[in-house]
Amino acid sequence: MMVASHLFFTLQKQQGLYRGIRTRELLATALDCSAATVERVIALYNASPTTNFEANTNNRGRPRTACIIAAGIIRSGGAIITGGFVENSIRVWNSTLKRGIDGEEDYHGNFNAELFERWYEDLCQTLQRYGGCNIYMGGAAYHKRDIRKSPRKSWLKADTQEWLRKNVGMVFSPKATIDTLLQLVEFCRPAPLYMAVDIAAKYGHRVCYTPPYHLTLQPIKLIWGTVKNRIAKKPAKNGKEVVAKVIEELEACKGDWLTVYRHVQKHEDAFVAA
């Protein structure tokens, strides 16, 4: 993906786009990694264009991947500002892990809304000790699970008709096509209510979503970029080692939160001034 994306941005720059920005910097922003990582990968590819980058697999050919989630906190007490990870917020697990027979593995498999919301509920409970907090997060699908379900193109026609009758009391022709019904839905579709917002409100917190494609406004992305670069210098040999390395490097970065927070503030100020 990195090689293909590098070619894409190279062609874009040849057409006069993104002037003044290096290709590796564009790619680093798009893929959420450092420019140095981009440079190393492209250099390896140029040295051997047939490289398939499959070295990072276990003996069965499966990629060594891990799911990671964590939350940082910036607190102010008078003139003193401190930063770090929220207590017990770091969760890392092998994505190939399956739930045990007795369900003893709370976190297993690939990341989804169910796992996020379980972790997020615990996070909001922990944050209560600091009073009401402003929670900032990106717009990932599992951050925005809408609990006010309304018809989409994937719905059956009968279900769409039932929704209109039950929620709107709208009269329509039984011969109306699904496209016509969806047009009616758009007139009365309720505003979304995201589960993350609902959970936060229950504990006295407020959620703010960062704009799409603005990774520079997310401190956790800078923390994660540092972690990935450190691990890339000495890759893990198996899934268990991946998890251990991620936890180790996250702990090593906990003192960086105030620095990345101030870095993000500079970008915020620039956007406001523009």
UniProtKB/TrEMBL annotation:
PANTHER family: DUF4371 DOMAIN-CONTAINING PROTEIN (PTHR33939:SF1), PROTEIN CBG22215 (PTHR33939). This is Tc1-like transposase DDE domain-containing protein. GO terms for molecular function: nucleic acid binding. It comes from Phytophthora rubi. InterPro entries: RNaseH_sf.
